[in-house]
Amino acid sequence: MALGSGSCPRTLSPGVPKPLTHKPESPSDDAADLHLVALLQAGESSAWPELIRRYQDRLFSVCLRMVHDRELAADLTQDAFIKVIQGIGTFDGRSKLSTWMIRVTMNVCLSKLRAEKLRRHASIERLRDGASGDGSGRGMAFEQSREQGAAAGVEAHEDRERVAAALKELDPEQRAVLILADCRGLSYDHIADVLGVAVGTVKSRLFRARAALRDAVERRNGKA
To answer: 216 lies in a domain?
Structure first.
């Protein structure tokens, strides 16, 4: 199976919505966002439901593609909105509201994934030292849950499952840049703003992430 450099990794997980076609925001969208921010910063809490309505699906989609688990994605989306509520007073309009909110959401997801990675490493070390460690089965339970979701959902092609598993092997930062570029369809400049890095860094990360995904898929194809 060929993975085009500009294609979205379409098998993030069975049950995950199909990759969204990124619709560029219009000036009217930006104006509506800024109007809502102005109301919220003025203490008009009645504007929150409208802001949540405008962004809940978008932020949930980002979380779902990062963690491949609907329940966890819902929790992370809620955490992201809490961060947005806490930080709306600091939004200064230097970037689009959508950029700022996706940045907040991506940071919530990355923090969760990094914590999980550290816990997995700690569990492995405990096993090596002869300790049982109650965290050792977490990854297995997560994988079993994903497989159960696959059986209950729409039929997934074998290649899709391999790409989904391969994507999970990538570092959180690599997964993040792939999702922003190939699924959200963001430009290099937009991704740089979301991740808080230089455009050159985005390009190099994306190149390495795509190469790492191809390598991971090829390894899995070799085991098939």
So the answer is: yes
pLDDT for 185-205, tens place per residue? 888 999 999 988 999 999 999
* pTM > 0.70: yes or no: no
Number of domains in the chain: 1
| pLDDT on residue 118 | 62
- Domain span including residue 191: 154-224
Position 210 in a domain: yes
Q: Are the C-beta atoms of 178 and 163 separated by less than 8 Å?
A: no
Tell me the CATH number at 191: 1.10.10.10
Residue 38 in any domain: the answer is no
Q: At what angle do helices 158-169 and 199-223 cross, to 10 degrees?
A: 130
Q: Is 224 inside any structural domain?
A: yes
SS3 assignment, position 10: coil
> Can you tell me the distance from the alpha carbon of 190 to that of 180, in angstroms, rounded to the nearest whole number?
9
3-state secondary structure labels for all residues of 128-155: HCCCCCCCCCHHHHHHHHHHHHHHHCCC
Burial class (CB in 10 A: 0-12, 13-18, 19+), 92: exposed
